[in-house]
Amino acid sequence: MSAVADFPVKPEARPYLEAARGYSGEPDWLAQRRRQALARFGEQGFPSRRREAWRYLDLRPLEQAPLVPAEARWADGSAVRGQLDAVGLPAPAARLVFVDGAFSAALSAREGLPAGISLYATHEAVKTRPELVEAALEALSHDPDQPFAALNAAFFTDGFVLDVAPGVVFEPPIEIAHIGSGEVSASLHTRSLVVAGAESRIRLVESFVGEGRYWRNDVLALRLAAGSALDRVALVEESEAALHFAALDATLGPSARLRNFALLLGGDTVRQDAIVRSEGEGAHCGLYGAFLATGHQEANIVTTVDHQAERGETREIFKGVAAGRAHGAFQGRITVRPGAQKVDAHMLSRNLLLGTRAAIDTKPELEIFADDVKCSHGAAVGDLDEAALFYLLARGIPREHARRMLIEAFIRDAVEIVEPAMVREHLLGRLARRLAILEE
Fold first, then answer.
1. H/E element holding 98?
2. Which of 198, 196, 258 shows the shortest CA–CA distance to 232?
3. Per-residue pLDDT reduced to its tens digit, 313-348
4. Three-class SS of residue 326?
């Protein structure tokens, strides 16, 4: 605490500074980075709704009932095996599992990875690949719109580091499972990094699930070298009482290709940020996703794509469904810098409201400072197609079943982008399960 006592501290940040502690066995450089990050968070505090990037999310409940980090517990994982079996892929090439933010060796398996792919828990990489952990800690370290990334850097317990050598092509998906055991009511911070070497190709599937009340605060940095390709899927099925904040920070080199898909199905308050810097000529960024919110849930998707080089391409498609008293929001911004000519960027947000008490806000933006580009955006919010519903009812399909079919078809259109088929079918199965209990 003495390292940050001289800094001005926002009141809502004080419980987290008071929870600060030392991490035994860590090197001095990491302890110093933690102190710097904690001081930064103490100065920034929680973002208010006056800040544009956070205007649709009310953080007062978290301010009033703080969820400070708990002591790391290296569990054997037996208590959460049922959760893992429910959301896990049937046959991943490799799997890392984190229980309450800490690596579980008993539930993980890395034997299926070929030469040229190294997969570590972050606490392992601190000792064996410290330069990669330092790179992970740089992600969002000075972004004023991401104060929780600083809190994450101060308190992260674990995470993963995936290092792919140049030229390595590996198609089977690598799975990362984050599980909340329900045994702690605290904040869980994980910090991760993917480094894709030139001309490499990799697939990654992350799932987030849990029980009880907790706050998951996840930061993932992606660094894609020239000609590399990464397909990533994130499945969020947190508990009904959980908060889930995840920030993706990606840098794309020349001709690099990122395709990221997020399916948000559970959690009391869920926010997914994607910040992409397209630094290399001809880089391609695909951001896709869908959320399904019911009850009093909050679901936010925020994307920022910054085109800094010529001939870049961006595609964004997001679908949202809100029922009951739920609230959803999409905020997307694509910026084309001066000199970034020949950029082709398109953004689409389509949303369904099921009932009069649900609400969805959508705010796509373009900032264009080059004159030879092709950019567009679109947004729509509406109810189910009455003509399509009548068509199904006229053929004897019960109303509840007919509505479910139309909602699933609406979201399925976004899920179809996911490859391979095994992962796509897994997501559709989880979607069907969620729809079966949807509050209408």
1. strand 94-99
2. 258
3. 999 999 999 999 999 999 999 999 999 999 999 999
4. coil
